[in-house]
Amino acid sequence: MTTATETGTGTLRDLVAAPGPFVSVYFDREARPQLAQETASRWRGLAARLEREGVDPSTLDALTDRVLQSLPGTGVLAAFAADGRVRHAVELPGAPHGDVVETGPVPHLLPLLEWRQEHPAHVVALVDRSGADLLLYAEGSTEPLRRTVDGPDDEIGRSPGLSQMRFQHRAEDSWEHNATAVATALEEALREVAAGVLLLAGDVRARQYLVKHLPAAIRKDVLISQVSGSRSADGTDLDAQVAAELARIRGVRTDQLLRQLDEERAPGGHTVEGVRETLDALAAGRVRTLAVTDDPQDTRTAWFGPESSELYERPEDAMREGDGHLAGDRLADVAVRAALLTGADVRVLEPGTPGGPFQGTGGICRYT
């Protein structure tokens, strides 16, 4: 069964569009049953803190039920509750995160978005000269959908009356046919999980034929990388290689964004940075990719209204424009909310990232 987290942009957009205030929880779970009581006690300590902070009892009860139902378990439970119910909950496999509890008008999505960056949609293809095994990972998935592709041609056997040259030509022709079938199946697999990353493993010659027969659009738009492994391997080492390669790709994509930010800083370019300028661009729906720093020590505030165009650095800015019904929350969370509501991508950066946007907030705009 596929273990997939519901972290799609549409799901998160619906979440930030819902009325708050929200309680956002990232809770480290414990798989060992003998520690279940200790883990439950740790949650109750957090719940007591939320009660002191004025969270309504019905919302707190709904969160408590959801947390305790998830125990024992591994990884992090991310839950977002408001108005007496858990509006969204998702289990994030991986290392402990450290318990985080935030309350405010906007759900605190930065850790979830950062986790999503570490688990992009991707396809792993283990190929040989007769076909391939495909592993399809949707965004946020930790267990794959599996597909097997058998090419139309059988392996060519060497017969006594067949010359080496004729045998080689027939074999190569067979491998080409099989690679074409794998390329067609791969195109469908990448589309199925909306993957932008393809990792190839297996027979070197088969990989060469496969890349040759991939559609030009895939070779242009999909990041294709190599890992070692074969169809007959048990997959243990492959898993570690895939994880390492995805981490490398994450760094590459961050570097590409930072390089684009720098290149587009020239007059007339598409970079926007700084708090006020970025909020203004988000309010106008101009931002294509938001770059925002996840710094727990950053307590700066931004203000927003019901409409995505109502976005302000200070509440007095809104008063001058006659907007009311404002709510204030952490700057980064408000910026992420605006990005999701206006169809912008979000890239979460570490604090102090060299080359990052001025004031830790910026992005690439759709137009100047």
How would you describe this protein?
Pfam families: baeRF_family2. One of its GO terms (molecular function) is hydrolase activity. Keywords: Hydrolase. InterPro entries: Bact_RF_family2, eFR1_2_sf. This is Vms1/Ankzf1 family peptidyl-tRNA hydrolase. The protein is α+β, with helices and mostly antiparallel strands and 368 residues long. It folds into three domains: 9-118, Translation, Eukaryotic Peptide Chain Release Factor Subunit 1, Chain A, CATH 3.30.960; 122-255, Nucleotidyltransferase, domain 5 (2-Layer Sandwich), CATH 3.30.420; 264-365, 60s Ribosomal Protein L30, Chain: A, CATH 3.30.1330. Helices cover 40% and strands 24% of the residues. It contains eleven helices and 16 strands. Strands 7-6-5-8-9 form a five-stranded mixed sheet. A four-stranded antiparallel sheet has the order 3-2-1-4, sandwiched between helices. A four-stranded mixed sheet has the order 10-16-11-15, with helices on both faces. The model has no long low-confidence stretch (mean pLDDT 88).
Which terms would index this structure?
368 residues; alpha+beta; Translation, Eukaryotic Peptide Chain Release Factor Subunit 1, Chain A; Nucleotidyltransferase, domain 5; 60s Ribosomal Protein L30, Chain: A; 3 domains; five-stranded mixed beta sheet; four-stranded antiparallel beta sheet; 11 helices
